[in-house]
Amino acid sequence: MKNRWLIALSAVGIHICIGSVYAWSVLTKPIMEQMGFSLQETTWTFSLAILFLGLSAGFLGTFVEKHGPRVSGLTATTFFGIGMFGTALALYLHNLVLLYICYGVIGGIGLGIGYITPVSTLVKYFPEKRGFATGLAIMGFGFASLVAGPLMQLLTANFGLVTNFLILGCAYVVIMSASSLYLAPPPKQPTKLNTAKLSTTTKAPTVIRQYTVGEATRDWKFYALWWAFFTNITCGIGLLAVASPMAQEVVKMSPLAAASMVGVIGLINGFGRIAWSTISDYLGRRNTYVLFFLIEIFAFYALANTTEAFLFQVLVLIIVSCYGGGFSCMPAYLSDLFGTKQLSAIHGRILTAWGMAGIAGPLLLSFIRETTQSYALCLYVFSGLFIISLIIAIILKVKTSRKEKLISNNMMA
Predict the structure, then answer these.
(1) How confident is the model at residue 405 (pLDDT cuts 50, 70, 90)?
(2) Element housing 138 (H / E)
(3) Are 3 and 176 in contact (CB under 8 A)?
(4) Which of 53, 45, 52 is CA-nearest to residue 96?
């Protein structure tokens, strides 16, 4: 029988490799200088990777469920590896289109499959702590930029851009292959009695109906969560895209201080994922999302009105923790509402929101910033979006709580 902690370590292994996509900004300037590409052309590489992450997760979730975590993990390794080696070739040839295809499309598909592969497996190995389990893996994705960023900078400075992608590609293929080969589904599911007991502990419904992906995507609760996820990522990734220049312009932080803040953001993004997902095991996912949106409404509003550097950094880090927590709590929330039978496929459909938000967030913020010459209006807009999400989260909480109570009463009767 597989050791569930080694299963968790394997999940982290996959996520810490594919999460290197968040360190792309480290390579932006070297690529512009050496390849002659513009900032917009270079940034689109990252946007395409996030877009295809969402699309591949959305449409290949059924593939993951059908073939299991080992085959899916090796498939993700193949796509991500080809993407890394193809990127090296594209940079060697100074070919922008090939760069988009290799890193954005092929690598993005590897990102999407790799992201959802370990999730439902971990949930089944840790049924009593679903939030903690998924947070553990997704934490690796958040922390990846802390490892990949300095490593990419060092490799590029000493060996060049092309060799950087060749070395990292080899390392990632080895780590992801070893991690994928250890992944396996648990030998058996918990009994119905145990499921009821565990669900009570984690504030989930007493009996969780096992939805198929088709049934889930015909349920209004799915679209309520899709919007909540989309809003959280749109606003969060929009803020992350301009955190450093915004700090320098609005509160007059030095470039060095702003860069240090960005480093701390990486830490909080990772720690926020495991911390919030663990908290959600005790508060319940419904209450946790209501809390997320309450915090972010006030944090974004306050951020638009602050000119003090310390308060600015505190507010940004609070928002980033909720941003990371929204990622890690989502798989557990989905399992609470739709069961674990086809969790990878259902989670994949939800991740299409990430692909859309990866483009919507930076575009919305840059458009408002260029139109108004200020960040304040965009932050007010983000705060308003979270008011809508809060209302939806409260409706979702009330409706599902009533249904849970009705089911419990019927069982007792």
Answers:
(1) low
(2) helix 130-159
(3) no
(4) 45
